[in-house]
């Protein structure tokens, strides 16, 4: 007796144009080709227009003589230096104020953010007043305030305000002693590098030891003792291979020492205070995201408040804080371009400003400036993402 077949007949694969994966690939190829053609059209059209107006393109102008001075330089520079040198000067000045601002804003922001949650009424209200005041005043206004209303109101160099006859404050900036390395100072630097490496190695050992035995080492005190003590010991044994250049009034200005120009000081203070107000709120929200039971459990174990905050609350809050903190670091770096309002020689003022006006190479200069800010932002994001991936909870 024959039984009817119950097997399902196999369907053919069908035409290729019904394959979802193939259709998606074709759409991506078409979109990529359209974008490439659009970019080629824009570039070709721009070059044609520039050629019709007799405007030369290219980066040959970077080798030409600049012919103007810059108030602050971290590397050697004269008016005979090239435009390429002005690009480096502007880049270094931008990185300088960005790094200083990130460090100061982070410290101030964490202190204010933790203070907002203080049980002390006065401390909490002062922290709240700081946040509500500085985050609601435009950054440009704050920069102008610190520069014109505060620093430019200082006396002339002859009537400088003195601190221990070592630091002098006047309208031209802050004069401070500068170290002058002597032969043998390299040993101190080597000792510092060795101390840092030894501290990092000891920190790894202490962490593994704590996981294995539950015993913690006071790494903050041990690390500080190693990093400070070893270079200091080498410094003293080698006969103090370091001299100090003290600023002295000579005529209408100071000679010797190092000068912190008022433009840098005003920009640094404004960026730090403004960004710290936002970081404080980020820190506060991160701490509040940690379940209250964590703090109660620490208190039941007899842990002190500072230990609870440092060892239990902050490490867990960092998982919430870091992603938002990355955005504030990026904003601070980009906001440093407002330095052109007070004449601080950053990348925008020196390269996208003076150099652009003298050479007329707008496309090349603006493209390089945009590329620098994009590169800095991507590097900051990469570093913060790497750190964020390390502190995230991982399943075992």
Automatic annotation (TrEMBL):
Signal peptide: none annotated. It holds the Pfam family BPD_transp_1. It is found in: Cell inner membrane; Cell membrane. The chain crosses the membrane at residues 21-43, 87-114, 126-149, 187-206, 218-238, 258-280, 338-356, 362-387. It is a multi-pass membrane protein. SUPFAM superfamilies: MetI-like. InterPro entries: AA_ABC_transptr_permease_3TM (IPR010065), ArtM/GltK/GlnP/TcyL/YhdX-like (IPR043429), MetI-like (IPR000515), MetI-like_sf (IPR035906). This is Amino acid ABC transporter permease. The keyword Lipoprotein does not apply. Belongs to the binding-protein-dependent transport system permease family. HisMQ subfamily. It comes from the Bacteria. It comes from Kushneria aurantia. Keywords: Amino-acid transport, Cell membrane, Membrane, Transmembrane, Transmembrane helix, Transport. Its main location: membrane. Residues 91-384 form the ABC transmembrane type-1 domain.
